[in-house]
C-alpha cells in the first residue's frame, strides 16, 4: 500500500491536469473561430484564459514550495491591489462605473479565501488564528472601501471555512457549491428572460438597477438571434441599444454567461461552465486537506456568482487571482512528499521497507 502511494497520487493528478489543458485550450480556440466568422476582438478572452492558466501554474508552484506563506502573500497582495489601484476600487465617485465594485468584491473574496487556506495549512494554532484574523480584516477592508458585497462575501467565506473543519467527505460539499453557482446563473437568465414572478422581478430589478437588467435582456436577445456563433467577441457594445444610451457604459452586459452567449453563441457559456466544473473537479481530486479544498471552492463559487451578475471577470487581476487560488488548493506541498518518504523508509521488523 505504501509503495503504491506515489503512483496513485500521480494518477489522481493526471486527470484534472489533462482536463484543464483541454478546457482552457478550447476556451482559447473558440473566440478565434467566432471572430473569424463574425468579426470582433478576441484579445480580451485570450488574455483571460492566459491569466487563469498563469495564475493556476503560479499557485501550484507556490503551494508546493510554501504552502502557508504563498496563500498568505496572495491574500495581502489582493488587499494591496484593491487599495492602491483606483480602477478596482469604487473610490469617491458618486456613480462608479458598473463592474468596478464587483471587481473589488471579487478580489477581496479571493483574498479572504487565500488567508483561510493558509490558516488550514498552518500547524501552529496561533498562526492559524492570526491568519483567520487576516481574513476578517479583509472583510473589514471591503466595508471601509464601500464594498458591501465584498464585506458579506469575505465574511461568508470565513464562516464557511470555520464550518468545514469537521467535514471528511468533500464530494457532497463540492456538489453543493456547483448547485449554488448554477442557481445564481439560472436566476440571472430568468431575470433577463422575464421568467420570474412580478414581485420578485421588481425587487431584483431595484437592486440590480434597470440599466443592468436592460443590458442582460439585450444580451439574451442577441444570443437567441445568433445562437450558433454569436455576434462576435467584443461586439456587444456596438449592437446593444441599452449600452448606447448610457455615457458610462463600457460596452459589456455585466454578466459573464450572458456576454459569452451573445458574443460567442451557446458554446460560450458552455465553455465557461466547463472551466468552473474543471476547477471543482480539480479541487475534488486535490491531495490537499478537505478544509483547504472546500474553502477555496467556496471562494471560487462566490466569484462565479459575482461573474454571473457583474463584470468581475473582465478584470485580469480577478481571472489571475481565481487561477492562483485554485492552483494553491490543488498543489502538493513538498513537505508531504518528505513525510511520505520517511514513512515508507520506516523499518518493519528486522528489515527496512525500500
UniProtKB/TrEMBL annotation:
The species this protein was found in: Streptomyces capillispiralis
Segments passing through the bilayer: 20-38, 45-62, 68-89, 101-122, 134-160, 172-192, 266-284, 291-313
InterPro entries documented for this protein: WaaL-like
UniProt keyword Transmembrane helix present: yes
MF annotations from Gene Ontology: ligase activity
UniProt keyword terms in alphabetical order: Ligase, Membrane, Transmembrane, Transmembrane helix
Domain of life per record: Bacteria
Protein name (Swiss-Prot/TrEMBL): O-antigen ligase
Amino acid at each position: 500500500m505504501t509503495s503504491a502511494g506515489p503512483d496513485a497520487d500521480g494518477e489522481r493528478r493526471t486527470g484534472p491536469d489533462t482536463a484543464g489543458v483541454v478546457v482552457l485550450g478550447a476556451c482559447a480556440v473558440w473566440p478565434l473561430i467566432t471572430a473569424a466568422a463574425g468579426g470582433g476582438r478576441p484579445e480580451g478572452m485570450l488574455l483571460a484564459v492566459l491569466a487563469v492558466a498563469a495564475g493556476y501554474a503560479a499557485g501550484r508552484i507556490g503551494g508546493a514550495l510554501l504552502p502557508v506563506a504563498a496563500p498568505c502573500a496572495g491574500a495581502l497582495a489582493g488587499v494591496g491591489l484593491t487599495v492602491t489601484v483606483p480602477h478596482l476600487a469604487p473610490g469617491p465617485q458618486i456613480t462608479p462605473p458598473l463592474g468596478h465594485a464587483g471587481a473589488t468584491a471579487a478580489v477581496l473574496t479571493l483574498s479572504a479565501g487565500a488567508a483561510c487556506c493558509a490558516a488550514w495549512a498552518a500547524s501552529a494554532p496561533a498562526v492559524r488564528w492570526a491568519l483567520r484574523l487576516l481574513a476578517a480584516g479583509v472583510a473589514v477592508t471591503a466595508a471601509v472601501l464601500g464594498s458591501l458585497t465584498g464585506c458579506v462575501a469575505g465574511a461568508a467565506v470565513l464562516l464557511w471555512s470555520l464550518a468545514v473543519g469537521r467535514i471528511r467527505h468533500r464530494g457532497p460539499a463540492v456538489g453543493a457549491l456547483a448547485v449554488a453557482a448554477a442557481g445564481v446563473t439560472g436566476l440571472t437568465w430568468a431575470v433577463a428572460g422575464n421568467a420570474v414572478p412580478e414581485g420578485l422581478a421588481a425587487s431584483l430589478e431595484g437592486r440590480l438597477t434597470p440599466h443592468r437588467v436592460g443590458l442582460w435582456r439585450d444580451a439574451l436577445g442577441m444570443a437567441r438571434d445568433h445562437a450558433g456563433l454569436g455576434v462576435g467577441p467584443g461586439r456587444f457594445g456596438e449592437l446593444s441599444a441599452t449600452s448606447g444610451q448610457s455615457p458610462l457604459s463600457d460596452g459589456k452586459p455585466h454578466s459573464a454567461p450572458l456576454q459569452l452567449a451573445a458574443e460567442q453563441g451557446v458554446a460560450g457559456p458552455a465553455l465557461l461552465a466547463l472551466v468552473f466544473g474543471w476547477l471543482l473537479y480539480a479541487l475534488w481530486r486535490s491531495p490537499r486537506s478537505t478544509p483547504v479544498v472546500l474553502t477555496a471552492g467556496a471562494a471560487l463559487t462566490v466569484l462565479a456568482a459575482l461573474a454571473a451578475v457583474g463584470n468581475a471577470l473582465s478584470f485580469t487581476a480577478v481571472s489571475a487571482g481565481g487561477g492562483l487560488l485554485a492552483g494553491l488548493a490543488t498543489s502538493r506541498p513538498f513537505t508531504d512528499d518528505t513525510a511520505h518518504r520517511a514513512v515508507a523508509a520506516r523499518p518493519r521488523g528486522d528489515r527496512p521497507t525500500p
